[in-house]
UniProtKB/TrEMBL annotation:
ATP-binding in keyword set: yes
Chain's gene name: nadD
Pfam families: CTP_transf_like
Protein name: Probable nicotinate-nucleotide adenylyltransferase
Keywords of this entry: ATP-binding, NAD, Nucleotide-binding, Nucleotidyltransferase, Pyridine nucleotide biosynthesis, Transferase
A Gene Ontology BP annotation from the UniProt entry: NAD+ biosynthetic process
Length: 215
């Protein structure tokens, strides 16, 4: 009996049943935003999330009306923001555009979205993908500690933001990825219209022109 136990101890270290189930899961990063409009900062961020090797896919989650942007009078209609996202990522493998938050109760709290996804896709492990500014303000998000206790954060640097402003408890759960920062925001595009066309893909610029967005 004693030698059987010893044999088991000296053999290869096998993952426990739960651990191995966890390792088999597909890994998906959720990258949420208003995308009003999508721009090269978002696109380069998605490439860095995918190139990290930590996740298999990115699901870009279009938020109808984000709780932290309710002060803004109105957003560009959802259908235009969605179409621009579809155009921006149409050629990118391993990226899906996700409209789930349109179906869920408002406001679109990230915790609610992640919990819903985890229940719907039990074979998938979800990560939260963010730009650096969102890491810095993460402690203001609805029930952010509950997000941190169940999900890891993956982040990319963003000019004009500094993660030293982030809370330690947030940084402890955040992986910063290799990334060449891109100095652009949707706000700048909304304010400067066609002058900023070079910061969006040609197909998105053409769509903006056709629908007279941000003029
Ligand atoms: P706005 O100017 O309207 O506030 P935004 O440019 O910050 O918009 P959002 O749609 O709010 O874009 O951002 C969605 C996600 O993309 C957030 O996690 C944000 O941190 C990240 N992000 C946006 N722009 C960049 C950028 N240039 N570099 C890295 N991350 C970015």
């Amino acid at each position: 009996m004693a030698s059987m136990v010893l044999q088991a101890i000296s053999g290869p270290v096998l993952p426990l049943p739960n651990e191995s189930a966890e390792m088999m899961k597909r890994r998906v990063g959720i990258f949420g935003g208003t995308f009003d409009p999508v721009h090269s900062g978002h696109i380069e961020a998605v490439h860095s999330f995918l190139e990290s090797g930590l996740i298999d896919e990115v699901w870009v989650m279009l938020t109808p009306d984000p709780p932290h942007k309710r002060h803004r009078s109105k957003h560009t209609p959802y259908k235009h923001r969605l179409r621009m996202l579809e155009l921006a990522f149409s050629e990118t493998e391993r990226v899906k555009i996700c409209t789930l938050e349109r179906e869920l109760p408002q406001p679109s709290y990230t915790l609610q979205t992640l919990q819903h996804l985890t229940t719907t896709y039990p074979d998938t492990r979800f990560f939260l993908c963010l730009g650096e500014d969102s890491v810095s303000s993460f402690h203001t998000w609805h029930r952010y500690r509950d997000i941190l206790s169940d999900f890891s954060l993956m982040a990319v640097k963003r000019p004009g933001s500094d993660a030293v402003e982030a809370e330690d408890e947030v940084l402890e759960k955040t992986i910063f990825l290799e990334h060449k920062p891109v100095d652009i925001s949707s706000t700048a595009i909304r304010q400067n219209g066609s002058d900023m066309e070079q910061m969006v893909p040609d197909t998105v610029a053409a769509y903006m022109e056709e629908h007279e967005l941000y003029t």
